Amino acid sequence: MENSKSEIIKEIAQELDCGSDCYYNPKTDEIVSIPNFGQISDEDEFRDAFREELKKVTKNKSEFIKIEVLESFESFKIMERFVSQIVDKQFQAELENIIERKKPFQNFKNRIDNSDYRQKWFDFKKIQLEKIVETQLNRGKASAQQSTVVKNK
Fold first, then answer.
1. Alpha-carbon span 84 to 78, nearest angstrom
2. Which residue, 54, 77, 72, 66, is CA-closest to 25?
3. Alpha-helical regions (H) of the chain
4. Terminal C-alpha separation, the chain
5. Which residues of 65-92 are buried (b: 16+ CB within 10 A; e: fewer)?
6. Which residues pair with 21 in a beta bridge?
7. Using one digit for the tens of pLDDT, what is the confidence trace for 62-113?
8. CA distance linking residue 106 with residue 102, whole number of Å
9. Which residues contact 80 (CB under 8 A, 6 or more apart)?
10. Which sign, positive or negative, has the C-alpha torsion 105, 111, 113, 118?
11. Residues 6+ apart with CB under 8 A from 136
12. Radius of gyration of the chain (CA)
C-alpha cells in the first residue's frame, strides 16, 4: 500500500508540474487530471475536451480531494529554497540576482537550463512538489474523515 501511495503522490506531482489540477479519490485511488482553467483561452473547447472528467468530478465532488496547480508565489518559494541550498556561492549569487529582477521564472529557467545544476533543479522541484501533494492529501483525508464523523452524529 505504501508503494502505491508513493506512486500516486509522484503522478499527482507530475500532473501539477505540467499545469493540471488533480482530483484524487482516496477510496478508489483514482486520479482525474484537468488542465488548470486559468491557462485555457477557449472555454467551450476546453469544456468539450474535458467533458467526461469535469462531469465526473462535479457529480462526485465529495469523493475527491482537489489539488490545484501551484500559485506563482508557491513556485517562487521553491526556486528560493533551491537557490539557498546551492553550494557554489558565485552561482547562488547569480541566481539570487536573477530572481530579484523582472521575469524571474523565465530568466531562472534560462540560466538553470544552461548550467550544471539543471538536473539538480528538476530533482529538487520534484521532491518539493511531492511534499506539497502529500501534505494536501493528508489534509484532504483528515477533512473527509471529519465530515464523515459529523454526518454520522
1. 10
2. 66
3. 2-17, 43-49, 51-59, 72-84, 89-100, 104-113, 118-152
4. 30
5. bebebbeeeebeebbeebbeebeeeebb
6. 34
7. 999 999 999 999 999 999 999 999 999 999 999 999 999 999 999 999 999 9
8. 9
9. 99
10. negative
11. 65, 67
12. 18
Burial (0-12, 13-18, 19+ Cβ within 10 Å), 144? middle
Highest mean pLDDT among 24-33, 80-89, 141-150: 80-89
Residue with cell 473547447: 45
Map grid coordinates 483525508 to a residue. Answer: 141
Instruction: Report the Cα 1 to chain-centroid distance in Å.
Output: 22
- Distance in angstroms (rounded) separating the CA atoms of residues 97 and 100: 5
Q: Between 104 and 153, whose confidence is greater?
A: 104
DSSP 2-45: HHHHHHHHHHHHHHHHTTEEEEEETTTTEEEEEE-GGG-S-HHH
